[in-house]
Amino acid sequence: MLGMGPVGQRFADALERAGRRVVVYDPLPDRCAGHRAADSAAGAVAAADWVLSAVPAAACVAAAQAVGRAAGRDTHLVDISSAEPKAKRSAARHLPDGRYVDATLLDAITADIPLVCLSGPRQDTAAAALAGLGLEIASAGPEVGTAAQVKLLRSLVMKPLEVLTIELMAQARDLDPEGIALWSVERSLRTPYRTVAHDFLTSNRLHAGRRAAELDAAAAAVAAPGSASLYAPMADGLTRLAERWRAPGAPDPDAPAERLLAHLSPDGGRGR
């Protein structure tokens, strides 16, 4: 397992519960606590049949290159990073013969049964290897990069929706203290949207900056030449949220929703 952020932790834990032998590596050793850890990426993958990579998007190609150099010729790599399709196709060149599998997480990693999308020549083999981990697997086809494209398309809906929902919640502190507007959205959509809204808020506290970059990439992937992007204001909104979360006094991600929303208000919550 390469990369022991929240996604890597979830996969490592699930693999160990399923009785698999797991060796993990992360440049931040504290993240590997409680797991059998190697002191390098090469050490983690040297004897592996399967490698899962949950590294940051910018490290996607470097991770694949490290696996290609250190692992055996029969080793498969499942890359579940959020890298763009072009980067994943570049990464695949370091594991020829179809041994690279493009994977994307299409859910919150905290979901009861996270949805993972796979693509590549050996996606079916990868799906079998991931069986028993409490995942729902979707097949996107035999081409590396297709699963990454699916994630980009999903971003065109989910990330603007996140921005709009958090804006509604922040404005409602003063304009709708009883929360009727959000309740009405819930009724219109026939879904437990207040729970969704809370999940958006808490996850945005952690991931707003990364999601702004992902939305920019998604918008660029579908933009017509010379046309204005519908999504630029939403990406800017995510960037501004990330800046607010980095400001002094930002509450912890597990703080109550009211404290998170108060921090986003223009007066820092002093008006109520």
From TrEMBL:
The keyword Oxidoreductase applies. Residues 246-272 are annotated as: Disordered. Coiled coil: none annotated. Signal peptide: none annotated. Gene3D superfamilies: N-(1-d-carboxylethyl)-l-norvaline Dehydrogenase, domain 2, NAD(P)-binding Rossmann-like Domain. GO terms for molecular function: NADP binding; oxidoreductase activity. Residues 1-95 form the 6-phosphogluconate dehydrogenase NADP-binding domain. The active site is at K151. InterPro entries: 6-PGluconate_DH-like_C_sf, 6PGD_dom2, 6PGDH_NADP-bd, HIBADH-related, NAD(P)-bd_dom_sf. Keywords: Oxidoreductase. The keyword Hydrolase does not apply. Belongs to the HIBADH-related family. This is 6-phosphogluconate dehydrogenase NADP-binding domain-containing protein.
